[in-house]
Amino acid sequence: MARLEQAITSIVDVFSEYASSDCKLNKQELKKMMEKEVQSPELKAKICSGDGDNIPWKLDRNLDRELDFKEFMNGVTTMAKCYYQKKTEIRLHRGLDPHFKACSGFMK
Amino acid sequence: MARLEQAITSIVDVFSEYASSDCKLNKQELKKMMEKEVQSPELKAKICSGDGDNIPWKLDRNLDRELDFKEFMNGVTTMAKCYYQKKTEIRLHRGLDPHFKACSGFMK
């Protein structure tokens, strides 16, 4: 399967596995998912609330203390941006791609 | 590597591979990516403009005729929602999870 499609279906499958039948992640389900499905502390920190015990209010747009699929995808985007920024900075730092500098402004 | 993290890093890697040095996808790069990295016609239709030759204006928020990473991630979310909705409907249809009905309202 093509890589982008495989990544997308994998993200949906992970959500479906951990979200209970109401198609939302409560805080226990989110905690279990993040423990098992994300290893990088840096990415975890983007999603998990300070005490790691609550649903991060930044993602819980409707404040129902659960994450629906749309809110979950906002979290995926947040983690992807974090990883992308790190990857871009590494390339800049190693001078792998000098004209890559144009990217540094992307995170505005 | 944990599945969610692997999917996220794969998405970033695909973007970085196809985006030229200005960290944006022009229409040729997007077209090449979608041809190779997404097989499902249904998912492709969500991202590719009608004639498949232009950057879909719905994603090109700043109308610069290119997709930066943030705009690209909006496209990934659109495809993920499409796949999620299909997967949820299949489960409903097969009665696999009768109380899954609660999900059908998610796409509001």
TrEMBL record, chains A, B:
A GO CC annotation given for this chain: extracellular space
Domain named S100/CaBP-9k-type calcium binding subdomain: residues: 4-44
MF-aspect GO terms: calcium ion binding; calcium-dependent protein binding
Pfam families: S_100 (PF01023)
PANTHER family: S100 CALCIUM-BINDING PROTEIN, S100 CALCIUM-BINDING PROTEIN W
Protein name listed in UniProt: S100/CaBP-9k-type calcium binding subdomain domain-containing protein
Species, as recorded: Nothobranchius furzeri
Taxonomic lineage of the native organism: Eukaryota, Metazoa, Chordata, Craniata, Vertebrata
